[in-house]
Every structure is written in structure tokens, then in C-alpha cells.
């Protein structure tokens, strides 16, 4: 299949598995030239070989130049997908400085650093597309995972800022906000994920499908779980009621873990 991204240069970070691998496969199926990034060089090469792309392993914060070179000088779409989460079973983890620092660096600052490198060329030519894998936690929250929930809010805020600042200059921005997705990260969320995310979890391929559809419809906010829109509206419309409901889920989690 050859689609809307025929010949486009696409970079996907954190693409050694899960959502990132699904995005790489979908963009390749649409005709794109794909750079597959992951900290795990072997996993990156495996997916790159599968999709006929190029593996550029390493820290997602520092691969834009190498990815651009691998794409003959032009990045058309950058998918800031790499992310990190910590299981919040230990109440003290909310104050774990290392967990916070790592979460800020991977979930927020990697996006900022990539945008800083990409924007000059995009603004000069008047086109470019930045895709941020945020999570519904960035719109709502997540029990037992303070660093993840807070930094995903930061990732969404940065994507919003990019969009409002540069959309009139040809830069398109999309924020993907799924709930549970059947990946290694979901498996690592422990009992909190089992309670909140597993019941409605979807496959990574469904996220890739939602992204392509969202791009076709030129939408900033992409919700692979459509019900998240209603949750977001309820949160904004009556924060106290929403927080009370979330606290009930917190209590249920505490009782059963």
C-alpha cells in the first residue's frame, strides 16, 4: 500500500516496540522513508529491517542530526514517541528525585530539544509535522504515577504551544492521547494499570490508525479512545466532582493492592 506519505522523511523515536513500532510500520506502508530510533540498537535495527527503514539508535534527545542525514537532509514528520513511566506502588515514589528527573528529561525535554533542532528548517521552507505521543494521562491524570502524569501534562502543553505559535507558518502539530495500549509499558504499570487501563486497552496498531486519520482530518488532538473526550469535558466542567470520582478509584486501588 502506498498512501499520503509517499516519499516523506519520517522519524519515530522509541520505535523498538509498542506504539513506536506500529507508527513506523504504518508510515512505511503509506510510502514514507522511515528512521527508527530506540535506545536498544538491536530492537531499532529489527524494526528498521522490517519496514525497509534506517535504524538510528540512541538517546531520543540527540538524534535529529543523524536522522536528518539518514533521510538525505530532510525530516518531514517527527514522532516524539519515546517515553518512560515508573510503577507507583511505593507511595514514596512521588518524591523520588531520580524518577522525576528522568521523566522530565524523556517525556518533556526530549520533545523540546527535538523541536529546537527541527524548527529552523521547517520555518524556512514553510512546512513540517511534529507528532507527540502524550497519553490520556496528559489530559486527565493517572493514579499511582505522579511523575508520569505530571510530565505528560507538560508534553501536551508543549505540543499546544508549538501549534499555537507556528501553525500559521506551516508547522502542523498532533498530540496522541490514548488510554491503555497493549505494550511493555502498560505491563509495567502493575496493579494501577490493571485497574484503570487494561479493561479498555487497545493494540498499538489502533493508535497508528488513529494518527493517520487525525492527520487526514488536520486535528491537533487525537483520541484513539474516543471516550476520553467526555472525561476531559467532565474534568474541565466540574473539577471537584471529577477529582472525587478519581479519588474513589484511588481508594479502590489502595484496598485491592
TrEMBL record:
InterPro entries: NAD(P)-bd_dom_sf, Sc_DH/Rdtase_CS, SDR_fam. The keyword Oxidoreductase applies. GO terms for molecular function: oxidoreductase activity. It holds the Pfam family adh_short. It comes from the Bacteria. PROSITE patterns: ADH_SHORT (PS00061). Belongs to the short-chain dehydrogenases/reductases (SDR) family. Keywords: Oxidoreductase. This is Putative Oxidoreductase UcpA.
